[in-house]
Amino acid sequence: LIGISAETGSAPWDRYARALAEYLSTHSIESADMGGVHLELARILDDQLGQSPKALGVLRQGIAAAADNDSLRLEMAQRLRRTGSHEQASTEYLLLLSQQPLQPVYWRELSHAFKDLGRQEQSRLALGPLLALNAATQLEQATYGMRPPRPEAAQPGAFEQTAFRVVNAHVTGGIDDGPR
Q1: Which residues of the chain have pLDDT under 50?
Q2: Which residues, 6 or more positions from 100, have their beta carbon under 8 angstroms from its beta carbon?
Q3: What's the CA gap between 20 and 50, in Å, rounded?
Q4: How deeply is 55 buried, as exposed, middle or buried, from its count of CB atoms within 10 A (0-12, 13-18, 19+)?
Q5: pLDDT tens for each residue of 124-153
Q6: CA of 172: how far to CAs of 102, 103, 175, in Å?
Q7: Quick one: how far is CA 42 from the chain centroid?
Q8: Rounded CA gap, 20 and 25, in Å?
Q9: No. of H helices and E strands in the chain?
């Protein structure tokens, strides 16, 4: 690609995307390394060729083949958020959190998705686990501390109970060896 780019002045991203798509179609989709190919193809389709719907389709295909591939699901959620599909993005973040509730990036992204939806209180509440995990920035700490927690103000079912139990176990159950 670099050589062709130097000769023509632009990289032939469409050729590269076709080659990746062909590779996916000729190899077993369940192979462990296919997640990376799906990620690369989605990034090329969206970032270089401006084909967001096709990129999302490639990510859905990869997730269907390997539902436990968090990288694909995170990429899907981030791309959904960038395209304005904030509700779908928040659903993807919640799915990620149901698998790995101790990942600060998922809580942070969920907070942003809720903010994009205009759900300011849910956005603020999503920062709480970041504080419990000792992963909140100063701005996130200040934002969370702006109002005292009011659990009765959250929508029923806004957060999974299992996520809070895991965070609580992390902080009080001996996983964190630091001071309490």
Answers
A1: 1-6, 8-9, 175-180
A2: 70, 106
A3: 16
A4: buried
A5: 999 999 999 999 999 999 999 887 655 666
A6: 14, 17, 8
A7: 14
A8: 9
A9: 11, 0
pLDDT of residue 180: 42
- Residue 2, token pair as written in the block: 């670099």
> How long, in residues, is the chain?
180
Please count the other Cβ atoms lying within 10 Å of the Cβ belonging to residue 39.
19
Spatial distance between the Cα atoms of 154 and 152, rounded to a whole number of angstroms: 6
Provide the 10 A C-beta neighbour count for residue 151: 8
Can you say how many angstroms the Cα of residue 71 is from the centroid of all Cα atoms in its chain?
A: 8
pLDDT given at position 20: 92
Judge residue 2's burial from the number of C-beta atoms within 10 Å of its C-beta, 0-12 exposed, 13-18 middle, 19 or more buried.
exposed
